[in-house]
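Researcher: We're teaching a course module on how sequence relates to structure. For the next exercise, students receive a sequence and then see the predicted structure as tokens, so they can try to spot secondary structure elements on their own. Here is the exercise chain.
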Amino acid sequence: MKLRVWLVVLVCSVMAFFLVGCSSSATSSSDVVKLQGAGASFPAPLYMRWFKQYSGDHKNVEVDYQSVGSGSGVKSVIDHTVDFGASDAAMKPDEMARVQLFPMTAGSIVIAYNLKGVNLKLSRKAYSGIFLGKVKRWNAPEIVASNPGVSLPDLAGVFPHAPHSRKPVLSGDESCGYDGNHLD
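Model: And here is the predicted structure for the students to work with:
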């Protein structure tokens, strides 16, 4: 717990230092430092917790983070309409050259299912098809091929998507071979 608090203090201190050092609006130590951020929804709950705690401990610092999606966050940072952004999607080299990158958190995506008594195995082709919306039923050939002898129901599966996402899931696209058009 103490390590996490320390990390939050360090991250927010770096952001506050950067803003105060680059901003003409903060003129004295008694001014309130306001940091505006935008970007990925995946880390938003963690950021909200960090920023609430940090602002509670440092009354002269206010941090506002808007969960608007990775693409909007990157655009906002490049356009200088926010002080910091977050993206769980890889940035293009020309975008990276225009910003300072700080790794903040990491996460993973899992495929969860509820098929009683079934220990499901998924090939790359099967999970790619699920993420891309091509595999829609539990007994699809892509799933059956990796599960010989397993009785899979003829039922539709549900794959939730982020409402603002251009693609099914930004974090899974690279492993799926997704280039915006087809599977490799």
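Model: If you want an answer key for the exercise: The first strand starts at residue 33 and ends at 39. Residues 5-10, 16-27, 165-184 have pLDDT under 50 and may be disordered.
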